[in-house]
From TrEMBL:
It is a multi-pass membrane protein. One of its GO terms (cellular component) is membrane. This is GLUTAMATE RECEPTOR 3.4. The lineage of its organism: Eukaryota, Viridiplantae, Streptophyta, Embryophyta, Tracheophyta. GO terms for molecular function: ligand-gated monoatomic ion channel activity. It is found in: Membrane.
Amino acid sequence: MDVSLNIAGGGCTSTVFLMKKRAALLLLLITGICVPMEVAFGQAAANENGTSVSSSSSSSSSSSSSPRPSVANIGSLFTFDSVIGRAAGPAIAAAIGDVNSDPTVLPGTRLNLISHSTNCSGFLGTVEALQLMENGVVAVIGPQSSGIAHIISHVVNELHVPLLSFAATDPTLSALQYPYFLRTTQNDYFQMYAIADLVTYYGWREVIAIFVDDDCGRNGISVLGDALAKKRAKISYKAAFTPGAPTSHISDLLLEVNQMESRVYVVHVNPDSGLSVFSVAKSLNMMTKGYVWIATDWLPSVLDSLQPVDTDTMNLLQGVVSLRHHNPDTDLKRSFMSRWSNLNHNKSTGASGFNSYALYAYDTVWLAARALDVFLNEGGNISYSSDPKLSETNRSAMNLASLRVFDGGQQFLQTLLRIKFSGPSGQIQFDLDKNLVNPAYDVLNIGGTGSRRIGYWSNYSGLSTTSPEVLYTKPQNNSSNNHHLYSVIWPGETSLVPRGWVFPENGKPLRIAVPNRKAYQQFVSKDKNPPGVRGYCIDVFEAAINLLPYPVPRTYILQGNGQRNPNYNELVQAVAQDQYDAAVGDVTIVTNRTKIVDFTQPFMESGLVVVAPVKEQKSSPWAFLKPFTIQMWLVTGAFFLFVGAVVWILEHRMNDEFRGRPSKQIMTIFWLVCFEIICRPLILLNLHFLLVDNFSSIRQYFLPLHRCREISRRYRGTNAEVKSSCNGNHSLSMHISSKNAV
């Protein structure tokens, strides 16, 4: 499929010169990444394939309208012999055939596919991409490598040729730096947030990232770190290895991370070499109880491509949790799956080789075809023009002046962004960030001879056991309290959620800061005996440590010289700056400090308290008189005499009890005042008369004197008999009987 380059000044071709030209083009590409370089390719190759190409002069760019072309070239760029390539190749070929056989799409125009293999090499992939551009393609499907996509994006930016990648998932490719790059698969940005939700769901706070040190690996793990930070978790260590690293290097890397504290591993590698990580982990006994392995979407792609999977491979992956692209189970998907075994692909693989990337590759061809149909219907032309910036390179043997730019590239790109349709992979529609709408993943648990789906993740509802298509019809609720998954069988064949961490073999003890106080040393102070400190706060901390089911190595470090109390704000700031791992002492919880460190629940509250010495005192039966001072006794006596005088004045004229000898009157007043002040407030007097018929009921009531007189006057002249007698105070006992009581 390679097309030889025309040597300037002659019509023959030279293999040696071809290789030199490839190297020169690559060198020019690498040095020109930061400097805009407009590139176009020869008109002759485009004319050979039936694509309309306009002619232009070196001083100005002009394009003439042309009729609808009979052939439109579309390029594809991926590694043919790879996990993704073996799935994408047949799918792209099938899509080209379906488009050309559909009379409703591109009538009168046939798509011509030009494929180049990147051979799993960034260098060769870049050279193949440059050769592909010579054929006057209107769009390029691929590449699958994010690293190659970064380089080629600079080329297509100048050529105005859209780059439609079905497998480059690097989140940074969505930047404004690459306007002509369009991702037709899920962005790893969402996958990393799905992993962060998984980590938070099971209560882990630290993970170790194992990844390939390339653009896709580094940038994906960077997003994972940001996602975990938003949930107050973190990546404790980033274990990177080079692409194609030998097994010995991976073994050394896993031995290193196995000595660390975290037991939660996130594996983000390439599908073609990812299984070697689990093979080494199995040999190091790292697939046992207590370990957690989370793999990104590369693992289901490998397993789906190997169907049926051999037993040895499955034994390496028992208990692994992984994510897979969620593709709705529609009629389009089922129809495509039924055709897969009959597609024209490598017969040696039989019915295997399929994974979700085949669906995205198939829909990518249809996206380009539908957009090209709309582009032509709206009056667009497939025409090219030379770039005046390259006119000064005519003296170069590379003949860069012959490179041309797709005139309708900008219009075609906007058309691609407007296309909406449903394909086997799901809804094909782009948001404002040029990502596919409704990103979602299946959460899988590898076990036995296959995998089991334990739930879903989507940016609409988070983790759920309900399909995203159902949740899209309901109000959005992405709260962590609403996240649910089915049970997981973890490594070691246990359903108990692993703790996710252990004490590292080479770990350092906790650095515990202790204030070296001068005052109130009962709380905390320096001690000559181990562990070097003592006090109430230390006793509480040690008691809490002893309740843990595992040992916690720790070292106490005194803060201050003991001559005066240390500055507690500086102590808290030192903990926040990671000079100490924690602090133990009488540290007051205030607002400013809670913004930079976390406090435990207070085990001692200050508040308003009364501090008194604890000592025994003899109690006295007259202790109740202690609150009564001399002034209080004088005031009480004055009120006593005042009340007695008032009562005597009011009752002396009408009450015989307040007459007679002075000693009698004084005694009466004394008892009356005592009753009023001491006894009467304790008694609720409810004064009622209950009069009944038949002379059978006689009730006795105690009434004030003036009420007795009112009742006596009321019943005078009636048949009622009123008897009263003094009860020794200002109330009287009255006995009333009546035949006709009113």
